[in-house]
Amino acid sequence: MSQFTKSIFEIHKDKNKQDFYKKNAEKINWSKDLDAWVCADPEKIKSILHDKDFIVTSYEVDSFNLKLGLDFKNTKNIIGYFPLANEGEAHLKLKKQVMAQVAKNYDLCLNIFSSQLEGLIDSIFTSYDTLDLMQDILVPTVNESLLALFDIKLNGSYKKDMGFSQVLDKFVSIKRRIEIENDLTEFLASMEGNFSQDQRHYNVAQFVIGYDGFLSSLSNAIYFTLSNNQEKKLSAILWQENMPVTGIPYLARIASKDKILDGEKILKGQLIRLYLDNAAFHNSDAPHFSELFFGYGIHKCVGTQISKKMWEIFIKKIITIDKKFIIKSASYRKDDYVFLKYQNIILETYE
Ligand code: HEM
Q: How many Å apart are CA 39 and CA 64, to the nearest integer?
């Protein structure tokens, strides 16, 4: 029997995942279940991400449309604007555009993040002994600040903790895909301002990536730190300077031609899964930050700097709380086979 409690699709959530990573760090292996090659060696991952013969995946929305007679119109248009769904000139153009957008609203986004976080932490920690760090504080804060980063103003009717980026997940159910398409339609309809439909799709695409990328890593970094410091005062915790773990445990690439790697023949069109969260354990028993969490090469994350800054702001604020705590419960978002994201982190606080 397998030593893992989770299925191969969720191995990155298993507490014994290091055994799996160790095997796939020594050399790449073919996984019949995943229908993909698997690599967990940070240096090899870097060289694959640097190699132009390994390209990003197409996310296959058209095949769902065709097979099921469904119309995932918004999903398809939005994915088209994800830099990480594009290669070549189209990718470079999009990437430059997103970098300029992030630079334009960088200070505004951080100011909103800081003031919203400060207000919510102060009011919620003083008014309640039991609180949900995610839904009460971080979800609204990240939402407001990243909406501003991408010039999105909503008319107030859209308040959900959206999980749009799950459309990047090949294994997500059709039911969930339909829900996401409906949520996207509602989200787009609640956007204010005189933007064309294309502009709306573009802005939402960038927001979706930033929102889930950041919240998933932030929630894991917080859970990891808190669970190792229970019953201490929040003000007494030594937080790591950079997020110690990531919420984006792996990336995928497709070979655009036959390649030889580790003596194995990777055929054109085959998928390779790159477990970058293994960089957290490299040469160490305790997880630690790795720059690889933000990817590598031409698709390296556009939000690296702003994410690091938001983490710094979060630490500065949370260490002003002079209360002890225990974690009452914490749960991952459902239907996630790519991201690792906490939906709830419930704390009970006391003097
Ligand atoms: C701690 C938070 C974050 C982490 C760990 C993270 C991680 C990543 C990773 C691993 C990639 C590479 C994907 C690939 O190569 O397939 C990536 C790409 C990207 N990230 Fe982030 N991200 C974070 C936050 C953000 C934020 C806040 C934004 C928006 C401001 C953002 C925007 C992007 C974009 C646009 C790309 C695509 C870049 C390209 O394809 O050239 N990310 N991110």
A: 28
Which CATH architecture does the domain made up of 8-350 adopt?
A: Orthogonal Bundle (1.10)
The domains of the chain are located at: 8-350
- If you measure from the C-alpha of residue 56 to the centroid of ligand 1, how many angstroms do you get, rounded to a whole number? 13
> Are 223 and 239 contacting, i.e. CB atoms less than 8 angstroms apart?
no
Q: CA-CA distance, 184 to 67, in Å (whole number)?
A: 21
Retrieve residue 77's tokens: 């248009």
Distant-in-sequence, close-in-space partners of 347: CB < 8 Å, separation ≥ 6: 130, 131, 132, 133, 226, 325, 326, 327, 328
Which residue matches tokens 């996207």? 184
- Give the confidence band of 19 by pLDDT, cuts at 50, 70, 90: confident
Alpha-helix runs per DSSP H in 228-318: 304-318
Contact 299, 84 (CB under 8 A): yes
DSSP state of 153: -
User: Rounded to an integer, what distance in angstroms lies between the CA atom of residue 218 and that of residue 299?
Assistant: 21
* 3-state secondary structure at position 193: coil
pLDDT tens digits for range 137-171: 999 999 999 999 999 999 876 667 777 888 777 77
CA of 107 to the centre of ligand 1 (A): 19
Q: Is 239 helix (H, G, I), strand (E, B) or coil?
A: coil
The confidence score (pLDDT) of residue 62 equals: 60
Say if CB 73 and CB 65 are below 8 A apart: no
Q: For ligand 1, is residue 299 a contact (CB within 6 Å)?
A: yes
Q: Of all atoms in ligand 1, which is nearest to the CA of residue 94?
A: 41
Q: List CB contacts of 204: < 8 A, sequence separation 6 or more.
A: 78, 150, 152, 164, 184, 187, 188, 191
Cα(303)–Cα(33) distance, integer angstroms: 33
Measured CA to CA, the distance from residue 95 to residue 90 in angstroms comes to 9
Compute the chain's Rg from CA coordinates.
Answer: 20
CB 275 within 8 A of CB 12: yes
> From the CB of 95, is ligand 1 less than 6 Å away?
yes
The answer for residues whose C-beta is within 8 angstroms of residue 109's C-beta and 6 or more apart is 145, 146, 148, 149, 306
20 alpha carbon, distance to own chain's centre: 22
